[in-house]
């Protein structure tokens, strides 16, 4: 929503607003371009524009407009991390320094508020996140580092399963902070934003080009703690932010028979490139048999990967475990590539 709303909400003063905007096409254009970035910057920047151009008309329009920013904004997850998972809570941290630029200036703040997080389909609240007050003066520092307590672990588990089985999922965030900007009257905001994120179909994901690579492979002979190989896995993060998961295990199968299992003792999905040590126990004779007698022309074998568990500091993390257990994929693995790694 943009210019048309300004016009709609301003009644008989419409022409004044339109003229003010028409005289500032570059600012308006720039404003719209910037809008695609961080919502809170644009929330603030919007207020500056309002101040500069159509202030007299829009006193009462601010909440409406600011709401619209937040509610329509495509959130940027850069710099967000989920760490220290526990069965009913985890830590959320985010650190961003925002400079407004573009000739916007002024100071103010967004008051602290409790953001309620819900499952969009059932509207059930599963967490209340205390957002601290955000002060701004020609920019803002957003520093959040606090625990998120879950009131409905099952809700998050369902969301996590959605993230691991389908391509997009969302969470509905609501809250009602006050926005204070300069000498303007306080605006009472009413945030109602569904944050959509991309999950992934694991089968599609593991078979997509470059999704993961084994970058080193060492056979353990004799076995160490029951593992007969140790490998380094490079993985593309399917989530848009950092997630510390802990100890994740998978069971492997070949043509429906149990092939073995793999353990990732310390998995943290990093925003771009994730690397992790993988320890595994596989039935080598079964692999070799498949390799020799399989019908593929190359060294390709199709290995079934089924999620088994996820724990952190030895404690099962139910919402991650649910997502991991939902993983039931088949990965096409080129054995020749890995034989080469051994030589
Ligand atoms: C958020 O909720 C907590 C607990 O319900 C309450 O103590 C706190 O005052 C609330 N904070 C705000 C800013 O409303
Ligand atoms: C994932 O993709 C595979 C192959 O494209 C498909 O067979 C499977 O049904 C999909 N799974 C989900 C949960 O959408
Ligand atoms: C997958 O997501 C699509 C929309 O993106 C939705 O229509 C469909 O019901 C979802 N499937 C599952 C199994 O959740
Ligand atoms: C696996 O390899 C990594 C790095 O190469 C090493 O730090 C780790 O101790 C190895 N683990 C075992 C069980 O060999
Ligand atoms: C895996 O290797 C391919 C080819 O070398 C590369 O394009 C891709 O980015 C790699 N993927 C990861 C996750 O490192
Ligand atoms: C699955 O893997 C776990 C460890 O990763 C192992 O304890 C369990 O026995 C495996 N299950 C099957 C059916 O192989
Ligand atoms: C797990 O990995 C993280 C970084 O990815 C590292 O900081 C941490 O020390 C590791 N923990 C263990 C127990 O190896
Ligand atoms: C991620 O990996 C790719 C390919 O290996 C590399 O080009 C890129 O610089 C890496 N990105 C980061 C942030 O390390």
TrEMBL record:
InterPro entries: DUF3712, Tag1. Signal peptide: none annotated. It comes from the Eukaryota. One of its GO terms (cellular component) is fungal-type vacuole membrane. Pfam families: DUF3712. The chain crosses the membrane at residues 39-62. Gene3D superfamilies: 2.60.40.1820. Keywords: Membrane, Transmembrane, Transmembrane helix. This is Uncharacterized protein. It comes from Penicillium cataractarum.
């Amino acid at each position: 929503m943009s210019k048309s709303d300004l016009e709609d909400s301003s009644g008989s003063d419409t022409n004044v607003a339109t003229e003010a905007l028409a005289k500032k096409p570059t600012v308006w254009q720039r404003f719209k371009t910037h809008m695609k970035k961080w919502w809170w910057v644009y929330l603030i920047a919007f207020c500056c524009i309002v101040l500069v151009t159509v202030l007299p008309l829009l006193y009462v329009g601010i909440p409406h407009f600011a709401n619209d920013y937040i509610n329509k904004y495509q959130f940027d997850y850069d710099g967000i991390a989920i760490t220290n998972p526990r069965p009913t809570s985890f830590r959320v941290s985010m650190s961003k320094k925002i400079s407004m630029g573009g000739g916007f200036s002024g100071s103010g703040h967004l008051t602290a508020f409790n953001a309620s997080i819900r499952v969009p389909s059932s509207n059930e609240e599963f967490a209340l996140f205390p957002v601290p007050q955000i002060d701004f003066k020609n920019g803002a520092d957003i520093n959040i580092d606090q625990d998120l307590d879950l009131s409905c672990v099952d809700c998050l588990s369902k969301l996590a399963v959605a993230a691991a089985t389908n391509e997009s999922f969302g969470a509905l965030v609501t809250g009602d902070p006050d926005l204070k900007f300069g000498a303007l009257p306080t605006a009472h905001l009413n945030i109602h934003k569904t944050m959509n994120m991309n999950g992934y179909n694991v089968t599609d994901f593991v078979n997509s080009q470059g999704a993961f690579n084994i970058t080193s492979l060492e056979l353990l002979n004799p076995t160490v703690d029951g593992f007969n190989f140790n490998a380094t896995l490079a993985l593309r993060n399917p989530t848009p932010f950092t997630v510390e998961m802990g100890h994740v295990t998978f069971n492997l199968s070949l043509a429906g028979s149990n092939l073995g299992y793999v353990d990732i003792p310390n998995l943290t999905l990093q925003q771009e490139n994730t690397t992790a040590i993988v320890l595994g126990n596989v039935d080598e004779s079964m692999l070799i048999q498949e390799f020799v007698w399989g019908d593929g022309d190359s060294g390709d074998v199709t290995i079934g990967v089924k999620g088994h568990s996820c724990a952190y500091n030895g404690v099962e993390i139910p919402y991650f475990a649910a997502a991991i257990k939902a993983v039931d994929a088949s990965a096409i693995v080129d054995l020749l590539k890995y034989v080469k790694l051994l030589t």
